[in-house]
Amino acid sequence: MSVTLTSGGVMPLIGLGTFKIKGRELVYKVLDVALAAGYRSIDTASVYRNEEDIGESLKELLPKHGLKRQDIFITSKLGPKDQGCGRCRESCLQSLNKLHCDYLDLYLIHWPGTQGMQPGDTRHRDLRLQSWNDMVTLQKEGKLKAIGVSNFLQHHIEDLIKTAEHTPDVLQIEYHPHLIQKGLVDYCRSKGIHFQAYSSLGTTTDNNTLLTDPVVCKIAKQRGVTPARILLRWAVQQGVGVIPKSTNPDHIRNNIDIFSFTLSDQEMVSLDQLDTQSHLCWNPSQVL
Ligand code: NDP
């Protein structure tokens, strides 16, 4: 299952998240299992410090799995320390280099702010607009197929659209039954921006409140599937993309099996009712 982005690229609805997956051996092993299981989309970022490991691994793994570069969708992101005219371009070219790619399928501004500044600093706006203009140029040059934003709220996106010539293809943001952002989903839909969720499984933590939520577990038990598949299915059933992260081969294979069943309206409503507006990752609401 995939979506066609405004820029024309086709993006799988499910991809592999790679935050905290580092080290050549582990990255190779995880990508090997993921490609065999059918994943064709990989989400990374310069701040994950695994782009080089991913690039090196894919050089060997694509031929091993009978795949070509154009068969997979690679996303990377501009780090918050590299915002601004010129810096964004340089950072993006470094990501391309590390990933051994001539082009990226999607490049995102990771965060609406710039590292080292207070959230209320008035320079954030200018700097992210400069980054965006660099990305528009890189897209025109063919180095980026699609461009988008991450952790932007509606006012950040509105401001970007007002000023720039290009609407983002994608918004990637935290979204799960404990943090439902329906207004933002509807806004993105109205603008043709694909909405992609991160931390759908409650992120990597010792105290995972999503995978152990009693309602999620009850629906999973009734259906004979894992809580992870319920959480991922809940998102894709709304047309929202997902990028679950796992280093466990069984989990990797299990997580992609979300198109073989449909949640009932009642199950969807029960999951929607779990919203507590709880952020598990960073919260961009204070960033000007
Ligand atoms: P997820 O919400 O995907 O959760 C990962 C955790 O779930 C890990 O502890 C993993 O453990 C566990 N898990 C995965 N599958 C299963 C399963 N089937 N059963 C039980 N446990 C499971 O975490 P992330 O926060 O990493 O989000 C996913 C991706 O989103 C990131 O990797 C990254 O690519 C992106 N992201 C983007 C952000 C942004 O600011 N743009 C911020 C955060 C994430 P195990 O490895 O043992 O399976």
Summarize the structure in words:
- With 288 residues, this protein is α/β, with parallel strands linked by helices.
- It is built from 10 helices and 10 strands.
- The protein has helices at 24-37, 51-64, 87-98, 123-140, 154-163, 182-191, 214-223, 227-236, 249-255, 265-272, and strands at 2-4, 10-12, 16-17, 41-43, 73-78, 106-109, 147-150, 170-174, 194-198, 241-242.
- The strands form 2 sheets. The protein has an 8-stranded parallel sheet. It has a two-stranded antiparallel ribbon with strand order 1-2.
- Strand 1 and strand 2 form a beta hairpin.
- Helix 1 packs across helix 2.
- It is globular.
- The model has no long low-confidence stretch (mean pLDDT 97).
- NADPH dihydro-nicotinamide-adenine-dinucleotide phosphate (NDP) binds next to helix 9.
- NADPH dihydro-nicotinamide-adenine-dinucleotide phosphate binds at residues 17-19, 43, 110, 150-151, 172, 198-204, 211, 226, 228, 243-248, 251, 254-255, 281.
